[in-house]
Amino acid sequence: MCDQWKEEFEYAVQVARAAGAVIRKAGECEIKVQTKSCAVDLVTQTDDRVEKIIIGSLKEQFGEGTHCFIGEESVSKGKPCVFTDKPTWIIDPVDGTTNFVHGFPFVAVSIAFAVNKKLEFGVVYSCIEDKMYKARKGHGAFCDDEQIQVSDVKDINKSIIISEHGTDRSPEKVSKIFSTMQKILRIPVHGLRGSGTAATNMCLVACGASEAFFEIGIHCWDIAAGVVIVREAGGILLDVDGGEFDLMSRRMVSANNKTIADRIIKEIEIFEVVRDDAEI
Ligand SMILES: O=P(O)(O)O[C@H]1[C@H](O)[C@@H](O)[C@H](O)[C@@H](O)[C@@H]1O
Ligand SMILES: [Mg+2]
């Protein structure tokens, strides 16, 4: 029983590695860029192609009927984002599409698996760096074959904090995001960073390179795999108001410990976002 989902986990690692190879190869050719919700929300044929490859191989391996799939590109094409108790794969085929388009070298494949709405494992393949982050509930978190752990820093003045500004550039949101960043810089912290991929940002918290990553506006596919990796590395997840983390809420603070999380939360200026599972 304790080794439940081991086969699915190991297969997800293989699939993520293969998907990463496709992305690397595609990056060597001309990339045709299109937009989704707005002019800075980019998508490429590679995003679509890689999602089809991932979902296709998972369906072939585990059968179509019993497993459900939430994939970034399927949802952007109108598939409802419904999170049920059924075994569910949550997939971001190319996390960091803007980085991919620009050759900025942080791009990740993110694959998570949940049952009864509880995340069981997560795999983040940072495919340009060739780093495989993975974690299964109760089994620790790893980067390649090395076990990873969050940092033990409790003093916010000795921390590096990660955040991103996302693709919504409405003046009210941009000003709240930058006001929060200013307040955090002035605490002061050692530094503010952002890799351009939420999945990789979470792995940076998990391996102790950063004390916390927070964002409002991310989607469940950006962070689902990272959630398991951070938890298994000893870190915590909270909502941006300090409440319980909710995968579908598009709001998240991941941190090495509660002291750091609470201090960051004090500075976050919250703005409204539409939940991933909202009925539209
Ligand atoms: O769209 P992709 O590249 O899959 O995901 C990115 C989000 O769009 C962006 O809002 C967020 O800031 C970035 O970290 C994320 O990974
Ligand atoms: Mg993403």
Distinctive features:
D-Maltodextrin-Binding Protein, domain 2; 2 domains; 280 residues; EC 3.1.3.25; binds ligand LHGADEBL; binds magnesium ion; single chain; globular; alpha+beta; five-stranded mixed sheet; 34% helix; seven-stranded mixed sheet; Fructose-1,6-Bisphosphatase, Chain A, domain 1
Give an overview in words.
- The strands form 3 sheets. The chain has a 7-stranded mixed sheet with strand order 3-4-5-6-7-8-9, with helices on both faces. A 5-stranded mixed sheet has the order 11-10-12-14-13, with helices on both faces. It has a two-stranded antiparallel sheet with strand order 1-2.
- The longest helix has 21 residues, at 6-26.
- The chain has helices at 6-26, 45-62, 72-76, 97-102, 171-185, 198-206, 220-232, 258-265; strands at residues 33-35, 42-44, 68-71, 88-95, 108-115, 118-126, 131-136, 141-143, 146-148, 160-163, 191-193, 212-216, 236-238, 251-255.
- The termini are far apart.
- The protein has 8 helices and 14 strands.
- The chain has 280 residues and is of the alpha+beta class.
- Helix content is 34%, strand content 24%.
- It folds into 2 domains: 6-148, Fructose-1,6-Bisphosphatase, subunit A, domain 1 (Fructose-1,6-Bisphosphatase, Chain A, domain 1, 2-Layer Sandwich), CATH 3.30.540; 156-265, D-Maltodextrin-Binding Protein, domain 2 (3-Layer(aba) Sandwich).
- Bound molecules: ligand LHGADEBL and magnesium ion.
- Magnesium ion binds at residues 72, 92, 95, 198, 221-222.
Radius of gyration: 18 Å
Mean pLDDT: 97
Task: Give me the CATH superfamily of the largest domain.
Answer: Fructose-1,6-Bisphosphatase, subunit A, domain 1
The main sheet comes to: 7 strands, mixed
Supply the CATH architecture of the largest domain: 2-Layer Sandwich
Q: Strands across the major sheet, in which order? A: 3-4-5-6-7-8-9
- N-to-C series of helices and strands: HEEHEHEHEEEEEEHEHEHEEH
Write the CATH fold name of the largest domain.
Fructose-1,6-Bisphosphatase, Chain A, domain 1
The helix content, as a percent range, equals 25-40%
Number of domains: 2
Detail the poorly predicted runs: none
The dominant shape is: globular
Strand content bin: 15-25%
Specify the number of helices: 8
- The helix/strand class is alpha+beta
InterPro entries: IMPase (IPR033942), Inositol_monoP_metal-BS (IPR020583), Inositol_monoPase_Li-sen (IPR020552), Inositol_monophosphatase-like (IPR000760), Inositol_monophosphatase_CS (IPR020550)
Subcellular location: Cytoplasm
Enzyme class: hydrolase
Pfam families: Inositol_P
